[in-house]
Amino acid sequence: MVRVASVMMAVTDVEADLGFMQRALELASRATMATSPNPKVGCVLVKDKVVIGEGWTQALGQAHAEVQAMRDAARRGIDVRGATVYVTLEPCSHFGRTPPCANALIDAGVRRVVAAIQDANPQVAGRGFSLLRDAGILVESGLLGDQARELNIGFFKRMETGRPWVRMKVAASLDGRTALPNGHSQWITAPEARQDGHFWRARADAILTGIGTVLADDPQMNVRAVTNSHQPKKIVVDSNLRICPSSKMFQDGGATVVYANEDVGKRAVLQSVGAELLMLGNQSGQVDLKELMLELGRRQINELHVEAGAKLNGALIEQGCVDELLIYLAPKILGDGAGLFDLPEMSTLDQAKKVTFHQVSTVGETIRIVARFVV
Fold first, then answer.
1. pLDDT tens string 209-226
2. Residue 276 falls in the annotated catalytic set
3. Which residue among 37, 117, 121, 374 is least enclosed by CB atoms within 10 Å?
4. pTM to 2 decimals?
């Protein structure tokens, strides 16, 4: 009987750990659109299987999740000494805009730290765990790690490769047409899908488009349909500086124009309306897209949202710059018209770009597909 009881207690403890970590992940998701370039982190403090404090990462330069949770416990009048900490990412161990969270937990006298995943930042990468263990705190890692990584997929991509997670959004008819032969495309999808698309814009650090889209549609390329505390940076690929200085892209804070061929006069005019000019040309006289991705990584862009035409879409895919497709398929058949991607002609099916369906759902009457390229 004693043996059975101990097994049941062990199962109960595991289930409790799982539930508290799931709650920490829910809290972390509240930081979406607010913390970049920092990761989104949630934290739950527990004593005797009772939650005594909760927190999630605040805006850049403000308190991290662990400190927020300890402040929450203090507001409740509860001492955190001896508590278990459930946190979705390894506590930081370096001085950045805020002091190290690992040190704060040590000073607070917590007993145990359960982290979902190790931090990919080279400044941390296990050092936070080592600090905690050296202070006599029990440390466990790996619980719901896949979910924690997914929540911060752009942060992990940038830390591991130096490039952002690139999500390409396209809206099309059921037969894969993004516009009629005359170029008319507003609106293929329903309002619900367009609003959903703005949510994906809002969670990104930057929005990328091409000069073809700017000349055809003069888009604002900002977030309007959802409430957001910040506007993503705007970037346009324009090899020959054809963009007009009166473009809507420049109306609310300017944009970065990435070009390949110098024109001092055009550059000066664009700079006069607040545009940033970034020259990244290749030997073909086109923008070097791979180098652009590395530059965006250096600028701490975690997630890049692409809304462009078939030409730039195809070039980005062909050069291996895209991680994920966000596809909205409307219940319409248009026949002839513009396609999704301009890619080189293939002679065998083995040459096809392979993806996996990560999510398939409906938004109103529209099918939403999130597909990831197979590496």
1. 999 999 988 998 888 877
2. no
3. 374
4. 0.90
